[in-house]
Design brief:
The protein is of the alpha+beta class and about 375 residues long. Among the domains are: about 1-110, no CATH class; about 250-330, Alpha-Beta Plaits (2-Layer Sandwich), CATH 3.30.70. Helices cover about 55% and strands about 15% of the residues. It has twelve helices and eight strands. Strands 4-3-2-1-5 form a five-stranded antiparallel β-sheet. Strands 6-8-7 form a three-stranded antiparallel β-sheet, with helices on one face. The chain is elongated.
């Protein structure tokens, strides 16, 4: 009877105690979150309840399974299994706690600062810090698990002796990966590009959607995703439209006839911009920037608060100016001259002009 009750008491007591501690911790965090709603840390720490319970239950079983006389013939295997589970659960708990602390710090920073550029920079750094912490904890946990096996402990001396050679081989083999890793850290703390920035890469316009230690994802205007190694942004030039502020100046070029009414177009442009909600009112203008034998190039200029609004301003100006010219000044649109050339007065042509006689089809 004792052989049955003892394991039941040990296992049942561990489970009950674990559930009670988990419920108590969740209750305390819930009360703290209700008292301080402006502090997001308590609510984020509630995500750690499951790994906390797993750590506690595994630790209790690991410390009492020998006294409980559970699977005495396989005590070594049971103990090692519980140790491996304990190491993994501790790593899981550490990652959850660090993520809660980092996210809480970012939330408080974002609520206290209104500068979108600084908030995006901190968000990028926070994301990469979380990934670095998770990677470090995972590597340490994997190493601790391996050291629980006697064969790995015996091989430790030989591994350390060959560490120099292995380091050289690993460095050569993982040169690209390590380059991307250091490039990711450089992007995070060098403030080159941030999550939410509007960039132009290889002629593609988009918004930075995700940054990891090895790759970066750009979401284009048509909702495609362009993924590229982060080392690209440290070795090649790219356009960052959000750098130093999101305000932008947009330009619309129109090719018109030489008779286009420039003054009336300038007034119409101002009227269009006043009715366009995307225009921020900072600047506008219209000027003739070039001329050819057949057309003139007219540049319309306007400003907006960000890349999305400048796109709206440009398409609105282009559409309404062309429609206005078509309706009120059709002669100002580009034309292809198909009329006969007018002969100059007598004595002003350097060569005699042979009049063109159309053929009638008769001999």
């Amino acid at each position: 009877m004792e052989n049955v009750l003892r394991p039941l008491i040990v296992i049942g007591g561990s489970v009950v105690l674990t559930l009670a501690v988990g419920w108590l911790a969740d209750w305390v965090l819930r009360r703290a979150d209700a008292r301080q709603p402006e502090q997001p840390l308590w609510g984020l720490l509630r995500r750690c309840r499951l790994p906390l319970q797993l750590v506690m239950c595994t630790a209790l079983l690991r410390g009492s399974y020998i006294q409980a006389k559970i699977a005495e013939d396989h005590s070594v295997g049971v103990g090692r299994t519980l140790t491996l589970v304990l190491i993994g659960s501790v790593a899981w708990l550490a990652v959850r706690v660090s993520a809660a602390v980092v996210e809480s710090s970012y939330s408080r920073y974002a609520s206290a600062h209104r500068d979108p550029a600084r908030v995006r920079r901190v968000r990028t750094q926070v994301t990469l810090i979380q990934r670095v912490v998770a990677a470090i904890v995972g590597v340490v946990a994997a190493g601790a698990m391996l050291l629980t096996f006697p064969a790995m402990q015996a091989a430790g001396t030989s591994l350390l002796a060959s560490a120099g050679v292995l380091g050289i081989v690993a460095g050569v083999a993982a040169q690209s990966t390590l380059g991307n890793l250091f490039a990711g850290l450089q992007i995070a703390f060098g403030d080159m590009v941030r999550i939410g920035d509007t960039v132009v890469v290889d002629g593609e316009w988009g918004v930075v959607d995700e940054i990891t230690l090895t790759f970066l994802t750009v979401r284009t205007w048509d909702e495609r995703r362009i993924t590229m190694p982060v080392s690209y942004f440290t070795s090649k030039p790219f356009e960052n439209w959000s750098r130093g502020g999101a305000q932008m100046t947009g330009i619309v070029f129109l090719h018109l006839d030489h008779t286009a009414p420039i003054a009336a177009m300038r007034e119409k442009l101002h009227e269009v911009l006043r009715d366009c909600a995307a225009w921020d009112g900072r600047d506008w203008g219209l000027a003739v920037t070039d001329t050819t034998p057949n057309t003139i190039q007219v540049r319309a200029l306007a400003t907006a608060k960000d890349a999305d609004d400048i796109w709206t301003v440009r398409v609105t100006v282009r559409e309404q100016l062309v429609a206005w010219l078509t309706e009120h000044h059709p002669y100002a649109l580009p034309r292809v001259n198909t009329a006969w050339a007018v002969e100059p007065p007598d004595g002003h042509h350097p060569h005699p002009v042979t009049p063109h006689v159309p053929r009638t089809g008769r001999g």
